[in-house]
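Hey, resending since the last one bounced:
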Amino acid sequence: MKLHPQIIEKDGRKEFVVLPFEEFLTLQALLEDYQDLMDLREAKAASRDEKTVPLLSIRDELLRD
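The structure tokens again:
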């Protein structure tokens, strides 16, 4: 993705960046996807030592009830 930022200076220093709205939305979606990935990795790491149950066992148990 190519960005087209407009940099606004204040007192000779770069202060703000303005992006076209579509570029902002694309960046926002990418950041949300990245955060979801980090959350998933954290959850997987936290549950690494937990006991697992095969999906077929759960299905069979639900069908019996």
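The first helix runs from residue 21 to 46.

Sorry for the duplicate.
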